[in-house]
Write a structure and sequence with these properties.
The chain is α+β, with helices and mostly antiparallel strands. About 35% of the residues lie in helices and about 20% in strands. It has a single domain, classed as Rossmann fold (3-Layer(aba) Sandwich), CATH 3.40.50.300. Helix 2 packs across helix 5. The chain is globular. It binds adenosine-5'-triphosphate. It is found in: Cytoplasm.
């Protein structure tokens, strides 16, 4: 997958709609302390479905919405649009929007989808909110200090097989409920004899 563009509106310090074009090759973001470099990386993670307050450096879900300054009122919503090209060359547009009091909603190519669908789309493409391709401050030290099981999770993300664990859990839960239904059916049939 090739991430081509990021559009932010009301997300953290990006109060005005801002567009970041990501050209082929290595992209570096430079600027003075506190100008919003890490917020950009967090926007990519967030649109991919990240909710962990630690990853987002926030206390609650709504903390990603522009909180206002001495001269600007807070915003009611935050929106991030990620434009990409999938491995088949097809355009992909993923939108995540959060409104105060109303939670998050996702759209992929104009259709409403669940958070899980977005996370699986990125996990299958060997990218996603926990992708090793997104290198934030302190990440290198974290990789070096990681326990073997954590390092395995990083490798699984990189290999694009992280989504398989989610699918396996779903399939196991379906299997368990089908087994219960079968047992119930057998009981009912035994009652008919
Ligand atoms: P450094 O180089 O110091 O790591 P940085 O360029 O990575 O800095 P960020 O950490 O991305 O900067 O941005 C921090 C800025 O974002 C702070 O000024 C903070 O006040 C602002 N900020 C974060 N969340 C919000 C929010 N919800 N509303 C308004 N501003 C926010």
């Amino acid at each position: 997958m090739l991430i081509k563009q990021l559009r932010l509106s009301g997300f953290k310090s990006f109060v005005e709609p801002s567009t970041l074009r990501i050209e082929p090759g290595l992209t570096g973001v430079v600027g003075p302390n506190g100008c919003g470099k890490s917020n950009l990386l967090e926007a990519i993670r967030w649109v991919m479905g990240e909710n962990s307050p630690k990853s987002m450096r926030s206390g609650g879900m709504e903390d990603v919405i522009f909180a206002g300054t001495a001269t600007r009122p807070p915003r009611d919503f935050a929106e991030v649009v990620l434009s990409a090209q999938d491995d088949n060359g097809e355009d992909l547009e993923v939108v995540r929007r959060i409104e105060r009091g109303a939670g998050s909603a996702y759209r992929v190519n104009g259709s409403d989808v669940r958070a899980k669908d977005v996370a699986l789309t990125f996990a299958d493409a060997a990218t996603g909110a926990h992708s090793p391709a997104l290198v934030s401050q302190g990440k290198i030290a974290q990789v070096i200090a990681a326990k073997p099981v954590e390092r395995r999770m990083m490798l699984e993300e990189a290999a694009g097989i992280a989504g398989l664990h989610v699918r396996r859990r779903d399939a196991e839960s379906k299997l368990r409920s089908t087994e219960k239904n079968l047992e119930r059916l057998e009981d009912l049939m035994a009652g008919l004899d």
